[in-house]
Structure formats: C-alpha cells, structure tokens
Prior knowledge:
This protein has helices spanning 5-16, 22-33, 75-83, 97-105, 140-147, 150-184, 200-209, 226-235, 257-262, 279-282, 298-310, 336-341, 347-353, 370-385, 395-403, 409-423, 438-452, 457-471, 482-486, 490-500, and strands at residues 41-48, 53-61, 70-72, 88-91, 111-120, 123-133, 216-219, 244-248, 263-264, 276-277, 287-291, 312-313, 322-323, 327-332, 357-359. The protein is α/β, with parallel strands linked by helices. The chain folds into three domains: 5-163, GAF domain (Beta-Lactamase, 2-Layer Sandwich); 188-359, 3-Layer(aba) Sandwich (Rossmann fold); 365-500, Helicase, Ruva Protein, domain 3 (Orthogonal Bundle), CATH 1.10.8. The strands form four sheets. The protein has a six-stranded antiparallel sheet with strand order 3-2-1-6-5-4, with helices on both faces. A five-stranded parallel sheet has the order 8-11-14-7-15. The protein has a two-stranded antiparallel sheet with strand order 9-10. Helix 14 (370-385) crosses helix 16. The relative contact order is 0.07. One of its GO terms (molecular function) is DNA binding. It comes from Citrifermentans bemidjiense (strain ATCC BAA-1014 / DSM 16622 / JCM 12645 / Bem) (Geobacter bemidjiensis).
Amino acid sequence: MAVEKDEFFREVTLRICSSLQINIAFERAFEYLRDHFPIDHMFLDIPDKSLGATRRIAFASVGHRPPVEIVPLPEGVWEWLGGLRAPFILNASDADERIRTFAPLIKLEGCSDLSMPLRIEDELIGFLILRAKGEKRYTSDHMALLSVVVEPFAMALANALAHEAVVRYRDILLDDNRFLRSELAPKLGDEIIGGNTGLRNVMEMVQQVAPLSNTVLLMGETGTGKEVIANAIHFASPRKDGPFIKVNCGAIPEGLIDSELFGHEKGAFTGAVTEKRGRFERATGGTIFLDEIGELPPQAQVRLLRVLQQREIERVGGDRPIPVDIRVIAATHRNLESMVTENRFREDLWFRLNVFPIIVPPLRQRREDVPALARHFVMVKCRELGIAIPPAIVPGALERLMNYGWPGNVRELENLVERELIRHRGGQLRFDSLLSDDKGGEFKHVIEGKAAGHISLDEAMTAHISNVLKLTNGKIHGPGGAAELLGINPNTLRGRMGKLGLKSGRRTG
Ligand SMILES: Nc1ncnc2c1ncn2[C@@H]1O[C@H](COP(=O)(O)OP(=O)(O)O)[C@@H](O)[C@H]1O
Ligand SMILES: [Mg+2]
C-alpha cells in the first residue's frame, strides 16, 4: 500500500506522542501501522544489562498477549543486537547463525519479525518489533518505511522510561517521607511529663492555641522544654500531617542564613549548583520552629519581618515571590524586650512575634515534677543504654533532686540521670554528687543552728517533714509524694504528722 512518507511520519508521530502512558500511545500507533504493515503483535522491548535480557515494556496485539516478556540473551547475541543501527528482518529459517540461535528464544517459529533499534544520541534504548504470522512477511520496502518513524518512537520510549523513573522515585520519596515523619512524630513514650502539674498552665495555653494558625512565642530558660512544647503545639494542630521544620537561628553562619531560610535559585552565587528550597518553603503546609530567635542578626530580622507580614518569600537570586502557608513558632531564652530597648532586636519584629507568648517556667519553680521527670529519664536512658532492668532510686535521693536549683533545667536533670546510670552501672541511683541549692540549705541551717542549742527530735522531725511537704506541694501519697521521698509508708507518715500536729496543707486545683 503506497503512502506518502510525510503523511506517514505525521500520523505515527501524533499517535505515539498522544499519551504519557506508553501502552495507550502504543495501541494508537498500532492501529494506524496495521494499515501499512502486516502485523499481529507489536512490542517495545528494552535491553536490561542488569538482567542480561530484554524486558518488554509495551505491547499491542490483535489477538492474545504473547507470553514471552523477558528474553535472556546469550553474550554473543547481546553484542550483535547492540551493534545494529538499521531496521532488520528476522525469519526463523534464516541462514544467519546468530538469527538461528536467537529465533527460539523469542519464539519466532512460524512468524516473521521486523525489528528497529531505537537510539537517543546514539545510545541504544530499545527495540520496536513488528511481528506477523507466517514466514517472510516483511520486505525491504517495509524496512525503509519503518525507518521513517525511528525518531518519534525513540523519543516516546525515552519519555516513557523517564516518566516511569520519575514516578518510581516519587513513590520512594513519598514512602521515605511518610517513614521519616512517623519517626519524628511524638511516640507513646514521648509524653510531656508534668503536663498536669508543673506545666499545667503551659499545656492549657497549648490546647488553646494549637487549633489556630497564629504565631507563638515561647520564652524560658535553656533546657526548660521549649522545643518539647513547640512539638506539642504542632502535633496538636490541624497541620500535624504537614512538615515540622526546625531552624536554630544561632547555629547558622551569618553568610548562609538567607539561603538556608529562603532558598536560592540555581546559579544565584558561586556554589549554587542546583536550586534549593529554603526552610520556609519546606515548611509550607506545616510549622516552622525558629529556635533561639534572639540570635538572629539584624539583616535577617528585617527579612523575617517581611515574611511574617506578607506570608511570602523570595529566593536568593529569584525574581518572583513564592507564597508560603506556614505557622511560625519562635523560641528564645533571652529577654527580647530588653534586647529591644538596647536596639539589638527590632521592635516591629518583637510586636509581630509577641502575639501569643507562652512562658515555660524553670524547673526550680515546678519542683513537684522532678521525681516524675527523674523516673522518666531513668526509663528512657536505660532503653538507650541497653540496661535491661532500670535501677531503683534510693529514697533520700529524690528529695536531694527536688532541693537542687537546676540552672540547666530539665536538660541538666536528663544529663545527670544519664551520667549516674553510667557511673553506677547496675547499682541503685543515689545522686550523691549533687549539692542542694540554697533553698534546701536554708532548712538544714535552721535545723543545724537550733541543734547547736536545744532541739528535740520532734522539732527536727517537724521541720524536716514540713520541708518535704513544701517540696511536694502537700502531696503525701503516690509517685513524687512525701512518703516516697522520705522512704516510709504513707499511713505511717500520716500517723506521725497527726502526732506532731502537722497538716498536709495540700493546695487544691
Ligand atoms: N516536660 C518534659 N517531659 C519530658 N521531657 C522533657 C520535658 N521538658 C524537657 N524535656 C527534655 O529535656 C530536654 C531539653 O528540652 P528542650 O525542649 O530541648 O529545652 P529548650 O528548648 O527549652 O532548651 C530534651 O531532651 C527534652 O526532651
Ligand atoms: Mg532548645
């Protein structure tokens, strides 16, 4: 059947480029090619070096799908095929030795093949194969006509392979992303200790603010748990399935802050070899946690202010603003207000950040949480250190911990527990390296001072029990209660308190 070559080229190209799904495009091309060639099946095979075989990635057929999809290739055949450049005809009865070895592998018996190598920039990427029932069905005219469409077929195959790879990488990345997020999300053992006691007010504020999208400012000394609270806000918010991106403003070298926070375009500066999304862009749909915001240099403060006002960023070297849908949580251990007075922090930025301030109190102002925190860290650190049976804490030790001033707050307690576990591997935890701070010392002083004069055993006991009751906020019974700290039974303690005329004085609410 005579066909004009230009028209043939056009028609085949339109069909093979009509869908990103190679099987659909391939089917459409097949329907058209049937008018010009004898065909029962049409295959698109790619050489797979790692398999030592060709792999079928698309097919079209008038009848049933032919069974052979992966054809292992002997070394010699592999080289022969790899060197072919023009379309070639395969008949099972061919005199050529190589074709006769190859024919049974591809089940050529009783059929003819017209095969065309597809190359991009001279690299072999696959074969288009037309197959017809019967011997010697293809002629040199068929070969010439098929070679007219070698480029569109090669291009379509290359696109399909690239698309397949992109989809595969996307799936891998999505899977990685899900995995990493689940690793980041708070685990069962990660609960906030003291949420109902020392951090009760803080947690109430967390509950209030979490459902909204407003900026939150966390203030408190180092190690008080600001990051823990920032996490709690994010994971209690509607953005919990979005990213939680942390930036330590004090830890990024000044020259890199812009590109870290806002990203950069490819070629924006020497070394910007690829485009990079900044942390604000990465946080889109989620929360950005700006830790140690007080350390942000003046230049970056200006740019941060603009992000907060306009909710869009500009990449370094970029020429268009990119909208960002983010929630900002900032934290600092500094007094930002006095930094403003000293002109070290921009007042306008401070106003923007200070919409909903939450103060995380230092540990010495919530001593009642110390026993629970200590026990929590014993469990956590034993797991980390591979200690199967967590050692007990000796009774007087918890009292010592509660009396201490904790300048490094919860982090200091965490580190102390770890050191103690390592130092006294297997033994009971005494924490006797710890000196009580002034508060505890004061009480001791009273007792010791009096002891120099005349103090009865009852007086000493009264002073000591009231001291402990102050530490526990009047709690007698249960974990962190006075009985536990004193190492006696709660009923015994109550009895003794009765005799001494002591009330528990427990605060309610
Ligand atoms: N209420 C808490 N419950 C359990 N662990 C806590 C609590 N507060 C702080 N931590 C732990 O103490 C350490 C210091 O907390 P972090 O949030 O980093 O403090 P900050 O950011 O205020 O310096 C972290 O290891 C954290 O997990
Ligand atoms: Mg921190």
